[in-house]
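stage 2 :: seqdesign
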């Protein structure tokens, strides 16, 4: 190997190493942020996030630029976590079974996203990223409703209103009311959701 080729390989290795370290640092900061949210700390400071990640605040800002940059990475984490819980429910299944499966899945996903949703409710007025994230999750719900209950919705006189009602009944807002305000268990909240969806679709619960 010539000296030039060896030098190029060394520079590539050094560059690759720096990129890997930067990616590991970014991931550690995102993991720290999400861990703090899951622990109930809904407005963690940059200092708290950096300390949890084992880096300096300066390193945090070097990795993400500002809080909005960090929120962009963190919201991506929550979308990926939601993807892992999101499934397709066959429209050929009996309607009662579809409602049960749909609400069970919504319960798992809503319980998972609740820490982020609670934090976003405090901060999204000042954050385009958090507002966009909320819109993205709402769009997912509407897509899931359409895919799972299109036949039943098409049979109703006010299709759009019925779809909106199912979206409301299975939203994080409704879940928060049941879990946080009324103090219902996950099972009780899921059962209430099933009752609401069944009523909208005119299916005996």
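stage 2 :: out
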């Amino acid at each position: 190997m010539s000296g030039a080729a060896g030098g190029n390989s060394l520079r590539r290795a050094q560059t690759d190493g720096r990129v890997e370290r930067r990616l590991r640092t970014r991931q550690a900061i995102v993991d720290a942020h999400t861990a703090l949210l899951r622990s109930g700390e809904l407005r963690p400071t940059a200092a708290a996030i950096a300390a949890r990640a084992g880096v300096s605040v300066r390193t945090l800002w070097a990795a993400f630029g500002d809080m909005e940059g960090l929120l962009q990475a963190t919201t991506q984490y929550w979308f990926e976590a939601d993807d892992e819980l999101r499934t397709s429910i066959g429209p050929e299944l009996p309607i009662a079974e579809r409602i049960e499966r749909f609400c069970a899945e919504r319960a798992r996903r809503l319980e998972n996203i609740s820490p982020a949703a609670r934090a976003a409710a405090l901060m999204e007025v000042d954050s385009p990223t958090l507002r966009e994230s909320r819109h993205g999750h709402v769009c997912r719900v509407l897509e899931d409703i359409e895919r799972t209950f299109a036949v039943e919705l098409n049979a109703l006189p006010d299709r759009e209103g019925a779809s909106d009602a199912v979206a409301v009944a299975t939203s994080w807002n409704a879940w928060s009311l049941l879990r946080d305000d009324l103090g219902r268990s996950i099972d009780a909240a899921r059962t209430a959701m099933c009752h609401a969806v069944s009523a909208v679709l005119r299916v005996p619960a």
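stage 3 :: structure notes
- The CA atoms of residues 114 and 153 lie 28 Å apart.
- The chain has two domains: 3-65, 70-200.
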